[in-house]
Design goal:
The chain is of the alpha/beta class. 40% of the residues lie in helices and 19% in strands. The chain starts with a helix and ends with a helix.
């Protein structure tokens, strides 16, 4: 009898340990599922940070500009700001697809990087950004971007149209450069794809299946026939350098990947190397 009681006492801790492991497993599973569900349903809010503007809002910029509204359909309108160089005969146009925050007002200051070189700069807002209306979907963003390209091509030849993508806009710019003729593609702080970017933050989730938005920059780059230049800071904490570096293997001979040492997500404009390479790219003649 004493031996039986001793055996039972020895078994109890084992049962207790099993129960603890089981409980921990349940808690971990619940946390994993809860975070996954939150990421799935909140990804649009994590990815996009628009700031809308009333229809009667009056833009004020230091550069000469023109506001253009393109009717997409009976309900949706694309709002576009065209910045002009000082001279009356522009060399061409840079279609500038901006980042994920606010609207064109935030990015207008960068237009001088191109107007000083004699280029017009056309900055469209995405659906729900600024005065642009429409449903915020990847398909709608592409469709509206193509309308901007069509308008640009009605005024400029394809070899005078540069396509520029900054951060989120990299996916839009890469799409246009892959589908339309242009003088070249410029990407600032890009990513390989949105699922890849999400995976760098949440590697334990099947981000490719979970992501509503893809923006597959890497896939589009394979279709771009014209020159490509990419700028990325080595200290970028928003889109890690390693994510952009995946694009290196896709670049063609003659394309460039410019690493800005100590550059972050929002300060590449402060580096002389950035301006030297950008100006050289814009001035290149075949």
């Amino acid at each position: 009898m004493k031996q039986i009681l001793k055996m039972r006492r020895e078994e109890k801790p084992k049962v207790s340990v099993r129960r603890k492991i089981y409980r921990v497993a349940i808690v971990v599973t619940l946390i994993y599922c809860s975070i996954g569900i939150a990421l799935y349903h909140l990804q649009e809010k994590l990815l996009f940070h628009p700031q809308s503007l009333p229809k009667d809002f009056q833009f004020k910029f230091e550069l000469p500009f023109k506001e253009v509204n393109i009717a997409i359909n009976k309900l949706d309108t694309l709002n576009l700001i065209q910045f002009f160089p000082d001279n009356s005969a522009p060399k061409g146009v840079v279609i500038y697809f901006h980042g994920n925050k606010e609207n064109v007002i935030r990015f207008a200051k960068y237009a001088t990087n191109f107007t000083k070189n004699g280029f017009e700069v056309w900055m469209p807002d995405y659906p729900t950004y600024g005065k642009t209306t429409g449903k915020l979907t990847e398909e709608n963003i592409y469709m509206q971007a193509k309308e901007v390209y069509k308008l640009a091509h009605s005024k400029f030849s394809a070899d005078s149209i540069f396509v520029y993508g900054r951060s989120l806009g990299s996916g839009v710019a890469a799409y246009i450069a892959a589908k339309e003729d242009c003088a070249g593609l410029i990407l600032e702080t890009p990513y390989y794809s949105i699922p890849d970017l999400f995976s760098s933050y949440a590697p334990i989730y099947p981000t490719n299946r979970m992501s509503h938005f893809k923006f597959p920059v890497g896939e589009y780059l394979k279709e771009v026939k014209e020159r490509v230049i990419i700028f990325h800071g080595t200290s970028d904490q928003t889109i890690p350098y390693r994510e952009a570096a995946k694009l290196k293997k896709i670049l063609k001979p003659g394309d460039e990947f410019i690493s800005i040492e100590n550059g972050t997500h929002n300060n590449l404009n402060h580096f002389s190397l950035f301006h030297e390479k950008l100006n050289s790219f814009l001035d290149f003649k075949k």
